[in-house]
Every structure is written in structure tokens, then in C-alpha cells.
Amino acid sequence: MPSGSIASLRQLRLACAPMAQLVTDSIAGLAPYQGGKPIEELARERGITDIVKLASNESALGPSPLALEAAARALQNAHRYPDGSAFRLRSAIADFHGVAFGEVLHGNGSNELLELIVRTFMTPDEHVIFGRPAFSMYPVIAAGHNVQYSAVPTDANLAHDLDAMVEQVRDNTKVIILDNPNNPTGTYVGKARLARFLEQVPESVIVVLDEAYFEFGEAADYPDGLKLRDRRENLMVLRTFSKAYGLAGFRVGYGVGPAHLINYLNRLRAPFNVSLISQEAAICGLQDSKHLQAVVTLNNQERVRLSARLAQFGRVFPSQANFILVDFGRPSAQLYDALLDQGVIIRPIPGLATHLRITIGTVAENDRLLAALGAVTQKSS
């Protein structure tokens, strides 16, 4: 048979055959994660050169100089694979927190560890609980693994409703994820209530405390999840170097939990998941307490000032993080777009139609935001 006839026959068979489903319905329904708009993207789109980005909760002061020096030194060995077990990094974290080496797990940001926990411990027959609104990757991770989930609405003050979460626990509930402080609201659950929650949840459930913004908390009852490990065995506490330590571009996070959970997670953890350069930067960043204190001090001082100034524009939600959520009482998409024209990037929040999340920057960056908000709101009034 001529080759052209064979090709035509193949096309006919493909046209008549039922279309195979390439992915599950849960994956087909997902939208890709959208981070804060990059500075370069706004410059391309609108021809703006003087841009302030306050959208991705990045450090206002950047990385520790010691971390950058360590990364530069590590480049000399960039042709080598990193230590897959991250012995030096995990040892440094273990010493810093006073935990055992076997209780520490490293990740490509704490986001990788969230995904790894679901992938390791859950099946499609099991159920995970988290809040809404909360970190936007929680439902993506659950849906990506075809896992059942309950997204429990926050209360009227956009704080996690722990009583409602406990009520959602089923016989097949395997994991509960709680971001404290909450992203995107900045609200937090106090120590006494969190301790009681950890005791209320059945022992068979793995509770994951996502404490990405832990270092910025200063409220009197602000909890340290690592000091509540005596409340339950199946507790994982996640932290990151992306926020207060200013190493977002290096992608380093870590988890602390019981050794038996870490052991299972390590079996599925990708090999060499944290680069040599990133490991060295994180080790030295962890040791630079002076730089960390400067970052936290600036953030918390500006959090007070910026919150007070933003109150003239809308409802400001009290924050324990390096960002502030504001309800402007008007469509946030329009306000967000108008601020882009002013060269100021902040963050709209899906599901919160009148709210915008604002990262706390330097004094100059925050003043630029306030001036832009004044100009935009005055123009539209």
C-alpha cells in the first residue's frame, strides 16, 4: 500500500477512535499558579521603568551578605552534585532549633514539602483539611493528587476557624494544613487556642503547621509551633528561608517533625532537591542573626506605620506577617490595574473581590505605594 494511503488510514483511525483522557478531571480544572507580577513583565507591557514591587512578600532588605558570600564561594564547585542528604544544612537547622538531625527535612522551598507530605501520606480515598482563604497552593496540591479536601471558611475577621476545622474531620481525614500566620490575611491563631486544637484533632491525623512567616510575629500570644510538639506526635512544622531570610530566589525550606515521618518523606523526596549553592547560602543566612533582626525590626516598624496610613483607604486586617491585607470596598481588579499604571505592583486575591494584599517594603517603597494610592483614589472619586 502506498505510504500516503497508510498515513490517510492512520488519520481516519485516530479521528474515529474515542479521545483518551490525558489527565484527571481535577487536574484539568486547575489554573497554573500565578505569583506576583514580575517587574520585567510590567516594564514590557506598559513601558514603565520606575517600578516598585510589593506583591510577593519578599524581604525588604534582601539576603544576608554572609549568605551571598557563601553562595559565591560555592559556585566554585557548581560542577558537583550537592549533598543529597543536605547533612550540613540539616545539622545547622537542628542545632538552631535544638532538635535531632533525623527530625529535619530540607526542601525546594516549603512548598515542595507540602506537596511531598500529600504525595507520601495520602491516597485519593483520603481527606485533607485547610482554610479558605489560605495559601493558594493547598487546593492545587490536593487536586493535583486527586485527594478529597475541605476548604474551611475563615471567620468574620478572616482568621482560621479551628472549631469548624475540627468539625470537618472524618474517618478518612489524614492531613490538616494550617498556615499561621495566614497567607493572604496576615491573621494568626493564638498559642492557647492552637495548643487546644492540636489536642482536639485525632492522633491519626498529621497536622502540618505552615509557619512561612513565623519570624515576623510579635504578638504576646503568638505561637511557636516547634514548642508545641509535645501536644501531639504527628505534627510537622514547616519554615522557609524565602521570607525573613531573603533567599526566595535560592528556594530553600525545611520541615521539623518526628523521625518516622521524616523517614517516609525522604523515600519520595527528589534527589538533590536543594542545590549546593542554596544549601551554603541558607547555612550562613541562618547564622546571621544581626541581619535577620534588621529585617524583622524594619518590617514590624513599617507594619505599624503602613497599617495606620492604609486605614484611610479601607479596612486593614491586623497582620503578624510581612504583608497587609486591605479591603478597599471597591473592585480590587480596577484598583490593582490603576496602580500598575503608577508603577506599583501589589497582589489581588482570588475570592476576595475588594481586597488587595500589600507586601511591606522599605520606607521609600511604602511611601511610593501610599502616594500612588492617593493619586489613584483621588482620580476616581
Describe this structure in words.
This protein is 41% helix and 16% strand. The protein is of the alpha/beta class and 381 residues long. It has a seven-stranded mixed β-sheet, with helices on both faces. The protein is globular and about 55 Å long.
Key features of this structure:
41% helix, alpha/beta, Aspartate Aminotransferase, domain 1, 381 residues, 2 domains, seven-stranded mixed sheet, Aspartate Aminotransferase, domain 2
What is the fold's blueprint, element by element?
Elements lengths: L2 H14 L8 H4 L10 H8 L5 E2 L11 H10 L12 H11 L6 E4 L1 H13 L5 E6 L4 H8 L3 E6 L8 H6 L5 E7 L11 H10 L5 E5 L24 E6 L12 E4 L2 H10 L7 H12 L1 H22 L4 E3 L5 E5 L4 H10 L2 E2 L1 E3 L2 E8 L3 H18 L1
Parallel strand pairs: 1-11, 3-4, 3-5, 5-6, 6-7
Antiparallel strand pairs: 2-8, 7-8, 9-10, 10-13, 12-13
